[in-house]
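Could you show me some protein's one-letter sequence and the numbers that encode its backbone in two labelled lines?

___
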Amino acid sequence: MTMADAAGEEQTTSSVPPGVGGTGGPPCLTFMLDVDNTLLDNDAAKVELDRRLRALIGEDEAARFWRIYEEVRADAGVVSYPLTLAAFDEDARANRRDLLRDEAAWRASCGALASLLLDFPYRDFVFPGAPATIAHLRALGAAVILSDGDPAYQPLKIARSGLGAAADNCVLVYAHKEEHLREVRACFPADHYVLVEDKPNVIDKVRARLAAPLTTVLVRQGKYAAAAARGPWSGADLAVDAVGDLRRYSAADFLAASNQPSAISHQEFG
């Protein structure tokens, strides 16, 4: 299924999956898959990116880059490498005129930094078994990558990792995905949804907002999942230590784990 199909292009045959809307058959599942630290080891990728950044521009400039990165995240509410690159250059022009004594050299340095970020080999950081897990879930229902992130950089990252292709390019990226569940349901209608996620706060937000039967899966990978084990949290319906573990689960397992009924929801979109 392509995103053009999901967005509602006219089709010669019905695009409603079996089971949806009372058409008969088993309940139709849609799996909503997070990316960073769920399908891809983003913590390790950032460590390697920092190492390459320091080798390219030096310790002091790398520290300035990461300071601006955090400022951009605070201002924009989302990680954005393109905005960070722009602000990095603007900050140098306002506060580090010494760096611009040779304009051509500065532009070359900024170009090399942009290439480092845009060409970073995210494919090397895909968790073992992640593509096979996507294939397994696609055999059980629809599988869509539903990622938070900068709408310019995150799709590029997903494409470079190979995860987009593994999901047949069914990819949705929003700055805050829990605010766009209405669109998700419109593009991927189902009787029952399964959220696969490493961030407990996102699981809680989706559970509160999605007006449809839902099974939540916590993947215990990365810093956010590790922090959940140390603090109070209501928990997910299922928890696995690695995303590859999901290949052991059947459609019936996901349905049975939910605290909500798997009958078709007639509520308004969440």
